[in-house]
């Protein structure tokens, strides 16, 4: 897959109002998990396709939090467990990274993966509000 331009920034630099608004209409909205190419922090010219929780959008630019199923994130305070979902074909528990926001052009989304239920989205939103200045 060809990499799409994106960058990753500290979450507090994007503090904004967060609202749950999923709608599987072809345009990614807050509350949806989508798949996109994500660059590695230590090698930005390399990366991999992975699920991302959309938490905001500005026109055709999405703000997302990357998901991982790596168990070693369990004890990392920058990662929060959100359980499993249809975005992971193996049904593994996922963790969402809270301290970095991915900025992705909407054309860089490969596919919509799922809708994160309202309760779990609200837990993530509450953590963004309490620790990263979102409202």
From TrEMBL:
Pfam families (alphabetical): PemK_toxin (PF02452)
InterPro entries registered for this protein in UniProt: PemK-like, Plasmid_toxin/cell-grow_inhib
GO terms of molecular function: DNA binding
Keyword field contains Translocase: no
Keywords: Toxin-antitoxin system
Entry keyword annotation includes DNA-binding: no
Family as reported in the entry's similarity comment: Belongs to the PemK/MazF family.
Protein name, UniProt field: PemK-like protein
